[in-house]
């Protein structure tokens, strides 16, 4: 009994890694005896173990954490023989090793999902080996073969190099402070830099990069900087502190070329900072690179490795050089920002006083603010009330308007199907796999059999498709197939697709479910699995050619014929089908589509509840028209509160226009803009309506024509009561031209030039507006 009291949940899990001390027993870790083990393994093998080689370890650790198991299924000895080495450990040490178990499970999970070609695979193997060795020997994590920081002990760190560079500039203090601001952005970007693949990185470097050096640099950066941000027991290092001169030169070279390509996405700074400081960053990196290359430090002028990170000879009292730190998952900042700045390189001596200072400075304000009412409190409480009302909706269906009730019931039906499919998956009745033909003569026979089943399914469900064409695509090594497997049945549905990873889209070629399974929500669940798979592989656009029978299904799955991807991206890469409609779906990287149906049900319920909470007094009532009210209004517009039915709405200044506050300068600004635009040399095609005799097809294609003459007439009739009405007509005028005329025509080019002038004038006249005539694709000169 005493032994059982000692072996709490954490210690039981540790016995999984400790050897048995019973005589000459060779068992290297305690393995619990599972109840009905054969049945459990058989049931779980359909999903977990086939997809994750580390599922048995996860299963055993969960079993050890949840219940007391005495006998080891491997050696038959008591758990107490495996617990001998653990008895001497302190509570703090137990906590440390428990965190390492959690890290090991995270590492194994990533290993089971990572692409074999990913450069981080080696880092994960190193991490797993270090964690396993530490847990089996109950010793600290050793230094791996890649070495330990600092990696260039005979040179300055990038932080010190930038500091010395700014201090050496022959400029006044004001300019040095400006350079320090650019240096902050530069160091932040370097500190969050994630190396691309060898080919991509080499293409952005002016000098040749050896693959061996790249591998070592990538692994060190991944192991000491990137990986600790996801793990609990590894120390978080900062890139700008652990590398040196060679790394700084490589980053400068990369940043210069990447910024010049105009396709650069920032790693640590914001898009707005990059847009504002792109040229300054390029100049800074160029000059820093030249300065480092020209420095001829003698052996006496270079610091020793022990002094390297503590160099203060270049510091200036008025110069503060900062950068944004990489943070661990357990590092919670007191500020609202998700990132934290530091004014010196990270080390154990400097960080602790910094934290204590923050604690002292932030303790009293938090107390003072605890009783202060937030300005959003009232709005938040309104949302809470709406949420409570939404929760009651399912038992209050009769209180809804008929159309709302019908929509809600339809969504309920779809969500119920989706949840039913999800339950079938969780119970092991169905499972989803991605399979393909890798052209390996020794590949899994079961997988080949499933491809044949899928071929037969598509042949039966898509009779118009030639069978040889279906077979060729399914077994093509460039195509992949996501299939639904039903227990004791086999393949009951699937999607054949071809990913274009480098171009950011995937083509859905075939999609079908057997007739017997089409009313169970499996089709939607299959597409949601496919969407999540694409997001996992960083593909955010799905394209397909849908025939007249498939348009309804794909529309229901979020596809539309209005594509959000430029034609130049996919044109020439996918095959067009006669009589089919090209449809696309833009995926959001932060949405889990498998869980989305239930989420959407909650959102709709919340929305309906909010409407009922804020407009219940007039719900169901029908009010008369507004024509007589407009006739009685001499000014041409009416105040919102005079519209019947709006008196019960709870409006606020943030959500509606205050039409009773007239803009006395609006007419003057509109006249000024129209005068400048009509006088422009590119405005002649837009001065009057298009002649239907000269262009007979124009009015059949353009449903809402507009021109400067019509705009001026509407202005004289006092139509433009708000700036957005005027901006909307100008936007429509340009959009009509772009849609009717090709990009290489003279009219498209004139509209583009005039649009640029209009955009500049409107932003100057209406800087607070949220609506502007945005520019389309630039035409060639």
From TrEMBL:
Catalytic reaction(s) noted: L-lysyl-[histone] + acetyl-CoA = N(6)-acetyl-L-lysyl-[histone] + CoA + H(+)
SUPFAM superfamilies found in the cross-reference section: Acyl-CoA N-acyltransferases (Nat), Bromodomain
Domain of life from the UniProt record: Eukaryota
Broad class of the protein's primary localization: cytoplasm
UniProtKB keywords: Activator, Acyltransferase, Bromodomain, Chromatin regulator, Cytoplasm, Cytoskeleton, Nucleus, Transcription, Transcription regulation, Transferase
GO annotation, cellular component aspect: centrosome; nucleus
Family: Belongs to the acetyltransferase family. GCN5 subfamily.
Protein name from the UniProt record: histone acetyltransferase
């Amino acid at each position: 009994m005493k032994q059982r009291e000692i072996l709490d949940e954490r210690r039981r899990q540790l016995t999984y890694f400790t050897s048995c001390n019973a005589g000459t027993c060779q068992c290297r870790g305690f393995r619990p005896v599972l109840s009905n083990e054969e049945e459990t393994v058989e049931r779980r093998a359909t999903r977990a173990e086939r997809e994750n080689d580390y599922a048995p370890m996860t299963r055993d650790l969960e079993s050890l954490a949840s219940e007391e198991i005495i006998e080891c299924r491997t050696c038959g000895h008591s758990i107490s023989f495996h617990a001998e080495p653990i008895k001497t450990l302190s509570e703090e040490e137990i906590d440390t090793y428990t965190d390492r178990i959690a890290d090991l499970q995270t590492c194994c999970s990533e290993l089971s999902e990572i692409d074999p070609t990913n450069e981080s695979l080696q880092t994960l193997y190193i991490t797993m080996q270090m964690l396993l060795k530490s847990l089996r020997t109950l010793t600290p994590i050793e230094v791996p073969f890649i070495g330990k920081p600092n990696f260039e002990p005979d040179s300055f760190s990038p932080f010190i190099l930038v500091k010395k560079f700014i201090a050496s500039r022959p400029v006044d203090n004001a300019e040095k402070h400006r350079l320090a601001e650019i240096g902050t952005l530069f160091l932040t970007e370097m500190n969050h830099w994630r190396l691309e693949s060898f080919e991509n990185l080499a293409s952005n470097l002016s000098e040749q990069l050896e693959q061996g050096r790249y591998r070592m640099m990538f692994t060190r950066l991944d192991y000491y900087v990137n990986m600790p941000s996801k793990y609990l027991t590894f120390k978080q290092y900062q890139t700008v502190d652990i590398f040196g001169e060679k790394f700084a030169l490589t980053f400068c070279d990369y940043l210069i070329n990447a910024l010049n390509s105009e396709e650069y996405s920032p790693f640590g700074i914001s898009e707005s900072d990059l847009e504002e400081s792109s040229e300054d960053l390029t100049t800074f990196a160029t000059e820093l690179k030249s300065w480092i290359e020209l420095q001829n430090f003698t052996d006496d002028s270079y610091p020793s490795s022990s002094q390297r990170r503590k160099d203060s000879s270049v510091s200036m009292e008025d110069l503060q050089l900062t950068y944004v730190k990489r943070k661990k998952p357990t590092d919670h900042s007191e500020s609202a920002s998700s990132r934290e700045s530091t004014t010196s390189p990270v080390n154990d001596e400097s960080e602790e006083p910094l934290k204590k200072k923050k604690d002292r400075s932030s303790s009293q304000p938090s107390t003072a603010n605890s009783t202060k009412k937030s300005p959003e409190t009232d709005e938040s409480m309104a949302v809470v009330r709406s949420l409570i009302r939404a929760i009651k909706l399912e038992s209050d269906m009769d209180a809804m308007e008929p159309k709302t009730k019908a929509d809600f019931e339809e969504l309920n039906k779809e969500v119920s199907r989706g949840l039913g499919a999800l339950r079938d998956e969780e119970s092991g009745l169905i499972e989803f796999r991605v399979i393909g033909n890798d052209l390996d003569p020794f590949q899994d026979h079961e997988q080949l059999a499933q491809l044949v089943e899928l071929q037969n399914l598509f042949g039966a469900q898509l009779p118009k498709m030639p069978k040889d064409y279906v077979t060729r695509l399914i077994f093509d090594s460039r195509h992949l197939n996501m299939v639904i497997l039903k227990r004791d049945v086999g393949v009951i549905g699937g999607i054949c697709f071809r990913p274009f990873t480098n171009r950011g889209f995937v083509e859905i070629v075939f999609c079908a479910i057997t007739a017997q399974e089409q009313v169970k929500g499996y089709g939607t669940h299959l597409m949601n699995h496919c969407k999540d798979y694409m997001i996992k592989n960083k593909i955010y656009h799905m394209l397909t050619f849908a025939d007249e029978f498939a348009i309804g299904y794909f529309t229901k799955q979020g596809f539309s014929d209005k594509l959000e991807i430029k034609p130049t991206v996919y044109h020439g890469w996918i095959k067009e089908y006669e009589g089919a409609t090209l449809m696309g779906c833009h995926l959001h990287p932060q949405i889990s589509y498998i869980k989305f149906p239930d989420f959407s049900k909650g959102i709709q319920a919340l929305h309906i509840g909010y409407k009922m909470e804020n407009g219940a007094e007039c719900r169901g009532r029908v009010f008369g028209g507004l024509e007589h009210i407009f006739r009685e209004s001499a000014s041409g517009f009416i105040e919102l509160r005079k519209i019947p039915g709006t008196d019960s709405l709870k409006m606020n200044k943030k959500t509606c226009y205050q039409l009773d506050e007239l803009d006395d300068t609006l007419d003057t600004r509109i006249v000024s803009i129209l005068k400048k635009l009509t006088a422009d040399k590119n405005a002649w095609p837009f001065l009057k309506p298009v002649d239907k005799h000269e262009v007979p097809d124009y009015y059949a294609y353009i449903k809402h024509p507009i021109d400067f003459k019509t705009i001026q007439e509407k202005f004289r009739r006092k139509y433009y009561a708000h700036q957005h009405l005027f901006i909307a007509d100008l936007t429509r005028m340009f959009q009509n031209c772009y849609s009717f005329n090709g990009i290489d025509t003279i009219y498209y080019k004139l509209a583009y030039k005039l649009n640029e002038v209009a955009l500049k004038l409107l932003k100057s006249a209406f800087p607070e507006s949220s609506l502007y005539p945005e520019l389309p694709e630039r035409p060639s000169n």
